[in-house]
Design a protein that fits this description.
InterPro entries: COV1-like. By secondary structure, the protein is α+β, with helices and mostly antiparallel strands. It has 2 domains: 2-101, no CATH class; 111-201, no CATH class. The protein has helices spanning 2-39, 49-64, 68-81, 85-101, 134-139, 175-183; strands spanning 111-116, 122-127, 145-151, 158-164, 168-171, 199-201. It has a 6-stranded antiparallel β-sheet. Helix 1 packs across helix 2 (49-64). The radius of gyration is 23 Å and the shape is flat.
Amino acid sequence: MKTTLARGLTNLLPMVLSIWLFWSLFISLDGLGRLMLETLGVDKIMLGAGFALVACLVFVAGLLFSVSPIVWVYSWIERQLMKFPLFKTVYGSIRDIAGLMNRDGKPKTHKTVLVRQANDSYVVGFIMSDFPPEPLREALPEGDWVPVLFQLSYQVAGVTSLVKRADLIEVNWSFEEAMRFNLTAGITSLSDPTQKGEAFTKA
C-alpha cells in the first residue's frame, strides 16, 4: 500500500506541479494582456487573447532589438539605471539568469568537470568561462585558471572557485544532465547506465 502510494506520488507530482506552474504563468500573462486590451477599450475578451497579445509584444520587442539605434537607446537607458546601487544588484542578477537560459546562437562553453579533493574524492563542477575576470587573473599566481561552479543540492545557488585547468577532469556529460544531478544530490537516476559520461583527463 505504502509503496503503491509512493510510486503514484513520484510519477504524478512532477507532472502536476509542472502543469500547475505553466498554467499559473499562462494565467498571469493572460491577465496582463487582458488588462492592456481593456485599457484600449476592447470588450468580450476570450481566454488566451491576453497571452497572445503579450507573446506578440515580446516577439516585436525581439525584432526591435535587432535594430542598432534601438539597441543603443536601450543600452543608454540601462547604463543610467545601473547607477542606482539597489537597481544594479537586482537587475544585474535577473539579467545574468536570463542570459544563462538564453544560449541560442552562442558557443556552449559550459563544460562538466570533476575536481579532485584533498581526500581523493571528486566534486562535480561546471566551467562557466574560459578565463576569469582581469582583476582575478592579476591577483592569482601564474597558471591557467578557470572559474568552476559547484552547484549546491536542492538550490539554484552555488559556489564559484578558481581552479587550475590542469587539475580538472573533463566529463562527456551534458550541462543539463549534470546540473540536474547536482541539484537533486544524485537522487535522479539515469535511464540507461551505459549512457553515463566517460571521464577523461584533459591533456
